[in-house]
Amino acid sequence: MTDLHSRLSLARGPAMKNRFMLAPLTNLQSHADGVLSDDEFRWLTKRAEGGFGLTMTCAAHVQAAGQGFPGQLGIFHDRHLPGLTRLASALNAQGTHSVVQLHHAGMRSPRELIGEAPHCPSANEEFGARAMSLDEVKASRDAFIAGAIRAEKAGFNGVELHGAHGYLICQFLSAEVNLRTDAYGGSAENRRRFLDECIDGVRAACGKDFSLGVRLSPERFGMDIGEILRLAESLMLGGKVDYLDMSLWDVFKEPEDAGFKGKSLLQWFSDLARGKCRLGAAGKITTGAHCQRALDDGLDYVVIGRAAILHHDFPEKVAADAGFQPIALPVPEAHLKAEGLGPAFLTYMKTWKGFVAEPA
Question: Whole-angstrom Cα distance, residue 310 to residue 327?
Answer without folding.
Answer: 7
